[in-house]
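pasting for the record
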Amino acid sequence: MLSRRLTLTYVVTYLTVGGVGLLVFPRLARDLLLSNAEYEDVGFRLAGLMMVALAYLVWNIVRFEDWKYYSASIYLRAAIVAVLTVLFVDTEDPMFLVLVGIVLVGLVPSIYLHFWQDKRV
């Protein structure tokens, strides 16, 4: 059954795996994300650091079952999708579409769970 714990665990997973990848192997991560542009490694490493730190915060929401921040996670991820979409339109780098897809895989079930399933119970 779909749960808040499952949807945020997905977020923790992609933030941790992606963050470590960007931090330790920025060029490989860029290639795996299908980027067609050249970027400085330092930017990817900084993004990786921030992702790992954010993963720790989200993990604590899951660990302590502090669901009062669940709706904020939905709104923030929706804003992230919007910005990534604008970046794709601006740069035409498919990396941003891959990132949109990764975020949407977790965002869509979260939206369903929060706005529809939780209201029926």
